[in-house]
Specification:
This protein is of the alpha/beta class. It has helices spanning 23-32, 45-57, 78-89, 110-127, 139-147, 165-173, 190-198, 228-239, 243-258, and strands at 7-12, 35-40, 62-66, 95-102, 131-136, 156-158, 177-180, 204-206.
Length: 264
Amino acid sequence: MVSQAPLVDTHCHLGFEAFDKDRPEVLERARAAGLVACVAVAVDAASAGVAAALAVSHPGFIHPTAGIHPTEDCCGDEAEWEHVEALIGSGEYVAVGETGLDAFHDRVPMPTQIDSLERHLGLAIETRLPVILHCRDAFEPLTEVVNRFAGSGLHGVLHCFTGSIRELAPLVAAGLHIGFGGITTFKPREDLREAAREVPLDRLLIETDAPWLAPVPHRGRRNEPAYVAATAQCIAEERGLDLATLARATTSNARALFGLPGTP
């Protein structure tokens, strides 16, 4: 599928090992599908360094982030946090994260996750960068933490949204953008498509979360940025829009939120 308007994959892990064997071809397919940018998201300091190196190799197309994922073993490690702080301070990164809360996995205690999340939010506010949030089975505590920073200038995106309208409303009220990925296309997830219809168009973002969660008709394969077009098509149909209109709106949103090249 090729979009007639520019697309941005606002959340992918291009630096991960899953792309080591064919990364140039993956990027070529992304451009052929109409993508003009990819946000390469980190889960720790090492992956943030890889993302930054990719951005240097592909200027204007790949844009790196730095942060510590809540399920990483290093989530509560002080030295790791100081490394991430230094990376963000370099000015090479477009966002802080991904960070957030995850109650599905039990690798990191929730108090440690919350402390890390609060640190990331504080850093995002200090640097005026957007924050990228992960949430799995933890909408209530995540919203509670985010609301503590009300009026601070905090902005960012709850990526790979998997909730319903009930969970959507307080996140939008907190000023966040909402990122929708391949799960939106899965047949049983009508609740998620309903949320995709309801989120304000100027807060809507699309993503892959590659290499995971490939959308229909690619479900079951390794995900990659080119497949963001399938998710965009699904959401456009749900909202009664043509793909070009949806692509222009979400690309404008991405450029404005992450400070990407081009006119918002």
